[in-house]
Amino acid sequence: MEAAGKEEISVEDEAVDKNIFKDCSKIAFYRRQKQLSRRATYQASLDSATIGKDSTKFQIISETTKVSLLAEVYGIEGNIFRLKINEETPLKPRYEVPDVLTSKPSTVRLISCSGDADSLVLTDGKGDLKCNITANPFKIDLVSQEEVVMSINSLGQLYFEHLQIPLKQRAAKENKEDTSVDASQEDQEDLGLWEEKFGKFVDVKVNGPASVGLDFSLHGFEHLYGIPQHAESHQLKNTSDGDAYRLYNLDVYGYKIHDKMGIYGSVPYLLAHKLGRTLGIFWLNASETLVEINTEPAVKYTLTQMGPVAAKQKVRCRTDVHWMSESGIIDVFLLTGPTPSDVFKQYSYLTGTQAMPPLFSLGYHQCRWNYEDEQDIKEVDAGFDEHDIPYDVMWLDIEHTEGKRYFTWDKKRFPNPKRMQELLRSKNRKLVVISDPHIKIDPNYSVYVKAKEQGFFVRNHEGGDFEGVCWPGLSSYLDFTNPKVREWYSGLFTFSAYQGSTDILYIWNDMNEPSVFRGPELTMQKNAIHHGNWEHRELHNIYGFYQQMATAEGLIQRSKGKERPFVLTRSFFAGSQKYGAVWTGDNTAEWSYLKISIPMLLTLSITGISFCGADVGGFIGNPEAELLVRWYQAGAYQPFFRGHATMNTKRREPWLFGEEYTRLIREAIRQRYTLLPYWYSLFYRAHVAAQPVMRPLWIEFPEELDAFGVEDEYMLGSALLVHPVTEPKASTVDVFLPGSNEVWYDCKTFAHWEGARTVKIPVALDTF
């Protein structure tokens, strides 16, 4: 549900316009890193390295500024390496992302197997993995069985801007020396060192520029995946200058497809796969992040140095990945696999596994912005029974509240919410209602008054409560980064606090990027202040993660720990899988959006978030009957299965398109329920063993090169291959059947084929 014009706020035209969002050329830290990174080369002081129980520490010194950084290399249980780089003596602490790692990772002592002033070789004691650190210029090679699989800073793109004394204080001290970027006044404006302009907005940076960056070269790899959320292909594409993948959570209504702009969520984690090995890179940073990718084909890659290792590398391709973040520190985890399953376990060891969903949430969900009133709910609910279509969950969007005040009910439309819930309960159904992070500024609204009294809102840089416009009009935003705010918010879900709620009511967190209608890029100013005096720029991408965390905890407390929560969130970060489900936001009722939902969900699935889905039918616009049927057929085989539509669309309950289409949609939804035990088992495996529910073919067939780029079909667990029909008026579909030793059976007709081939299968509208 989204920024699509309300009576009091008309933002639809603005929200669809991509010009209100930045492209790379408008992002100052990207421009700086592209222009200036080659000027700085770093040298490691390995002769003074200290090898401790938990980590190996050494200095890295910039040859131009002579300022030193502190590097720490950790070995972590389960074949994981961690590299942290920070200022040795920062002006003040730099932000390090809390709460994402499930606990402090158990370290494995690294031992030095050789070393001098020029190089240091660390191993975890098993000997199969080595970390080779070169002093000048600074570089790290990750070596497995005498083969370099990954190099860090081999392109010399390590970049680290040091915090500086505010300009006003510096002028008073007449000390203008310590600038990490030497620039004229004109350059300072162009590079956005102290101020960054975008449209009518000016972002003031109190301590100057603070961005970080680092490059990783993956040897022999040309297939990379991950870093959601983008409406893009499953396999990551090469980026050209100015076209990096952007990780910055934004409210983008009717987002453009095949585009690398940031949308609702960010997981700064990618996987690389080749025959014989899978790797992962988890870049733990919650500020705005850009990722560039460049694959060099094998023929172009030559080495000056020869020798047994170099000779092997010479014939291999290489993919370079360049991570750039606006602030924070460099904190990166290298997941060394070697199998896809190993990488999933390594990532889940750090960030947790998918929460085990309650069974009802794996059924079908019916939603609309908005069901009008209790009578409307009663009639829609009865319609499912009358047409013999199973469903489990009814949803209410923002209009169910009293003037967009969350935790309230519109007294005219929903005068007796408990009675409405009892009707649903009598049929063993549930209700989900929406709760957004913005709170209407209203001295008569108890949630606002209590939060205001306790100082629970995000502040502006002048010290007052941050105020922005969202659905209720002028609103303040709860500071979910504060543990006390989360604890208080969790308490709002108790039956005594949330009048009219019952134990069949569950929650939907929307607009939590956070969405601010008249803010820069429709979000919060970066210099807003959070708990601990941290600027919003440091933690923007983790804001929604914290709201979902607090909501899930509230539902657990409500049942005294006896029932699993269900919470759907639009905004997310690494680790959000621990708290519930995610969806792909405000999609459009077009065939291309049905098609792109498959790679979008595959990318979420392999980055830990198995409970994911796309709005069936498309949120925006009116789907033709054929498209709606095909979307139900596809959605029935996707993890989160919800029909949803925006307020200005025609009603589209499953029985409104004529008897034949009703029958087809009924069959698709019933097929979902037929497979419910299988779905539940798959989610159990995701929960206990970190195995994705929805799997790209390369996971199940990691040695089959032809499977590495497939994104129009996928595996559900290890048993079912699904190829949705995503083209109008299709009469045949080409289905790739992997596995030379496999025999594949059509689960309806029992026709069978041998694997490692593409078969042309005839389809009608009832084929799925």
UniProtKB/TrEMBL annotation:
Which positions, given as ranges, span the membrane?
none
> What does the UniProt keyword field contain?
Glycosidase, Hydrolase
Check the record and name the SUPFAM superfamilies matching this protein: (Trans)glycosidases, Galactose mutarotase-like, Glycosyl hydrolase domain
Q: Check the record and name the Gene3D superfamilies matching this protein.
A: Glycosidases, glycosyl hydrolase (family 31), Golgi alpha-mannosidase II
- Show the GO MF annotations: alpha-1,4-glucosidase activity; carbohydrate binding
Name any Gene Ontology BP term.
Answer: N-glycan processing
- Keyword Hydrolase (UniProt): yes
- PROSITE patterns, A to Z: GLYCOSYL_HYDROL_F31_1
Which residues belong to any copy of the Glycoside hydrolase family 31 N-terminal domain?
A: 72-291
Q: Which family does it belong to?
A: Belongs to the glycosyl hydrolase 31 family.
PANTHER family given in the database record: ALPHA-GLUCOSIDASE, NEUTRAL ALPHA-GLUCOSIDASE C
> What's the protein here called?
Neutral alpha-glucosidase C isoform X5
Instruction: Name the source organism.
Output: Zalophus californianus (California sealion)
Tell me what gene encodes this.
GANC
